[in-house]
Design brief:
By secondary structure, the protein is α+β, with helices and mostly antiparallel strands. Helix content is 46%, strand content 20%. It has 3 domains: 5-76, Orthogonal Bundle (Arc Repressor Mutant, subunit A); 90-184, 2-Layer Sandwich (Phosphorylase Kinase, domain 1), CATH 3.30.200.20; 189-284, Transferase(Phosphotransferase) domain 1 (Transferase(Phosphotransferase), domain 1, Orthogonal Bundle), CATH 1.10.510. A 5-stranded antiparallel β-sheet has the order 4-5-6-8-7, with helices on both faces. Strands 1-3-2 form a 3-stranded antiparallel β-sheet.
Length: 285
């Protein structure tokens, strides 16, 4: 779960310095030794231990005693750093309520230049092995990878949105910092929770958007009824961190899986049958 705005407002300057130092040092340490952290922030050890205790109470830092006293930044702390940066840049002014949650992300409503959505990429320890096997990006280090893999996940999604918008119906990308992507807020419901009035017309629209993305060099690679928003304007394709380039050796297999997922859904829910080979030719031609 993401951090509250109150947590950020109550952070002391020294606590921000400690969070930033932990972020840097975790590229070299699984658990940052206390003496290394003290040297990095340039404060007395007593001050550092006091500030760390406050950060631990807020759920931003974790402590480990074996084989030495060490500290690790966790998602609440990473959330604080990213939100603070986005606020200082003027990208966001307020953090609202949670509007969506998935296996590896949580989405909050926010206020920036209008209403925006903030997607916090939270690639966890349990899903990390799957990420390493199935995605193009991998962390630069072997320890505490979920923090940095989450950042890379956000970077990839932001790149996809910038590549696709406005040709493809995807959210307008606004900004990205660390593991947070700020994008246009899309009202509506997920396709799996909707019942469309004209399913054939709607499926044709979805296939048309997949085709546009393909001709921009992008395959979604995790496409299903859960990644399509429905509103009065039609469909919006969301959740792009796993996207794949069309020149990838496995592109045909992944595209076929994406298309099969959505055709299977429309067959099951609306008894609408499309031939997958014809649909593949439609997308790639």
């Amino acid at each position: 779960m993401a951090i509250s705005a109150d947590h950020i407002r109550t952070l002391h300057k020294y606590e921000i310095d400690i969070l930033q130092a932990l972020e840097r040092l975790m590229r070299n340490y699984e658990w940052v030794p206390l003496e290394v952290l003290v040297r990095a922030v340039g404060l007395a050890e007593s001050e550092v231990t006091f500030r760390i205790s406050r950060l631990m109470q807020k759920g931003m830092v974790r402590y480990n005693a074996v084989p030495y006293d060490g500290y690790s930044l966790v998602f609440m702390g990473y959330d604080a750093l990213a939100l603070r940066t986005l606020t200082k840049k003027g990208t966001i002014q307020a953090l609202g309520c949670m509007i969506g949650v998935g296996k590896e992300s949580v989405v909050y409503e926010g206020l920036g230049l209008g209403c925006v959505a903030l997607k916090f990429h939270h690639v966890g320890q349990r899903s990390f092995q799957s990420v390493r096997l199935n995605r193009e990006y991998k962390p630069e280090q072997t320890h505490s990878p979920w923090i940095f893999t989450s950042r890379q996940s956000a970077e990839r999604e932001f790149l996809a949105l910038k590549t696709l918008h406005p040709v493809v119906k995807v959210p307008l990308p606004v900004d990205q910092n660390r593991h947070i992507v700020v994008m246009e807020y899309i009202p509506g419901v997920n396709l799996n929770n909707a019942r469309v009035e004209e399913p054939e017309e709607f499926l044709d629209e979805i296939i048309g958007e997949v085709r546009k993305a393909y001709h921009l060099g992008v395959i979604h690679a995790d496409f299903s009824e859960f990644n399509i928003m429905v509103n009065e304007r039609g469909c919006t394709l969301i959740d792009w961190p796993q996207w794949m380039e069309t020149d990838h050796p496995n592109a045909d297999t992944i595209l076929r899986r994406d298309i099969n997922n959505i055709l299977t859904y429309f067959l099951r829910k609306y008894q609408l049958s499309y031939d997958i080979e014809d649909t593949m030719r439609c997308v790639t031609s």
